[in-house]
Amino acid sequence: MDKKNLTLGIAFIVAAFATLILGQRFSPPPAAPAPAAGSPALPGSTLSTSAGAPAPNSFAPGQPVAPTLFAALTDERKDAITTVLANDFIEVRLTDFGGAIANVAFKKYDANQDSPEPFIFNRQHAAPILAIGELNGLDQNTRYTLVSATATEVVYQAIFEERLEVTRRYRLPAVGEDAYRIRHETTFRNLTSQTFALPRLALELGTTSLISANDLGQFLNVATYDGKDTEYIERAALEGGGFLSWVGMADGSPKAVIEQPRAITWAAVKNQFFASIYTPDLPGTGVSVRRVDLSPLPGSGRANTGITAAARFDLPALAPGASATQGGLLYVGPKEYTRLAKFAHNEDKVMQFDRYFFNSIFLSGYVAPFLNHLMVWTHGAVGNWGVAIVIMTILLKFISVPFTLAASRSAKKMAKLAEPMKAIKEKYKDNPKKLNEATLALFKEHKVNPAGGCIPILITIPLFVGFFAMLQGTAELRFQGFLWARDLSDSDTIWHLPGLGLPLNIMPLLMGATMFFQMKLTPTPTSMEGPQAMVMKIMPWVFTAICYNFASALALYSTINGLFTIVQQLLVNKYSKDEPLAVATTGPGGKKIKNITPKKK
Prior knowledge:
Elements: H1 3-26, E1 82-86, E2 90-95, E3 100-112, E4 115-121, E5 132-133, E6 145-149, E7 153-160, E8 164-171, E9 181-190, E10 201-208, E11 221-225, E12 230-234, H2 235-239, H3 243-246, E13 258-264, E14 266-270, E15 274-280, E16 284-293, E17 305-313, E18 323-334, H4 337-340, H5 361-382, H6 385-416, H7 418-427, H8 432-445, H9 455-472, E19 493-496, E20 503-505, H10 506-521, H11 531-546, H12 552-575, E21 585-586, E22 592-593
Antiparallel strand pairs: 1-2, 2-3, 3-4, 5-10, 6-7, 7-8, 8-9, 9-18, 10-17, 11-12, 11-14, 13-16, 14-15, 15-18, 16-17, 19-20, 21-22
Helix pairs in contact: 1-11, 5-6, 5-9, 6-12, 7-8, 9-12, 10-11, 10-12
């Protein structure tokens, strides 16, 4: 392998990492004013912040309302009747306004690290989850009648102008089903003696936002899957701006709404650790996405801009007395890969394992899922997530030991060829063809593989990127401490510099130190000189700077990996055979090159 190309490749990867992460971290927040209360959220819909009487029962699907920049928040109605469904994992609060899910509390996940209060999805929202949107008279402003309520099922009903009966049913998962997955059905029944043409149905998916002061919003988006490909509508797409707009190649103005027409096997609204995923019985026809202006998070100076969406469905015309049901499964819960991977329609793709760099099936379909399974399995055996990461890292190192040892021996041999290589370059400096032939002959004679030193890098890079991608949305690590790190999913800050507020993070510094000593112990290839050598020398410092504010779990993985590699290299340097080099070597055409090494004085 060409050492120069390899070095440049690594440098480009590091630059890409820095551009992606630092660009997101230091980009200015969007400057967009929030509309007054009661502004419409979606074309043809009305989102009201008042707690007045229900809207009159009259359809107005063909009368679009000019959309505003933000969807307005809906206040908790004081006169709403709330019904609760609960199991050991979730508490689902349903409201009779819209006959939908006001919010869902996760009993296994705290809202804050220092408080036992559960995290509540859709706490602040533009609409209840699965509320009917864009249909005045059946939307979230319409009061539904509570027909029945048991410990596992709630049924609502509304009559539109004595012409259409709408029944909405919600059922908790049964034994053997996923605890976070709710069964939903909305049935339309024609009460007239004439055919009733149903308008297009929009079901709200919920509202989500940033979940901590350090959250940059890179996983705050709407995901849709058509049975083959997954597409993501990022919050940034609504905010406008971006590099292409700066150079005049794209429209950088903020967007009030993004309509994405495509087949929908499932659609999701998600943040870094939690998601609302609706998988309908029959495919939908698209999604409509908007931003939501929320209150700033404590300790953060950035705007807390959330995102909301509605999935669209075409409904058949109803013959007199006929009915049609739109049903599906709603998952509202943590982004746990081992849980989502059991679902039938690739709902695990909300994890976005393929988000960074190698947007490939290899990383997203094999490396990151394998690392997640290994980490979860190890945690099941030891009971501590930090210890699980340490053990998992050591297991991975043992797998790569044969390759690493072979590469270390190859690098050591290459280092010994420094003087012969220098002599060959001097002898054939004006003849590149013979220089190449003599170099290859030298490698062949001493049984040295010049590409051997690349193997550990080729193995390490996918593991590092896969582990990085896997950690970004792994809810299991949230608020899990290890040693001095209070949260493995966040940086391990132990102190801030007074006045400037710069954090002191220990794990990334240890990671950089192990990379530095590892490089010192590893024999330097003969071709690594000049700018290439300089790039390799500054690599530990560059990686330390880039990873400084990443999840401490990533730095823990890299540190343990580096310590193991250092011990391994020390053993290789001490116990590997020190084979002397022959003075003569083979030159072009099979001829022997005499006195290739400098003579001793």
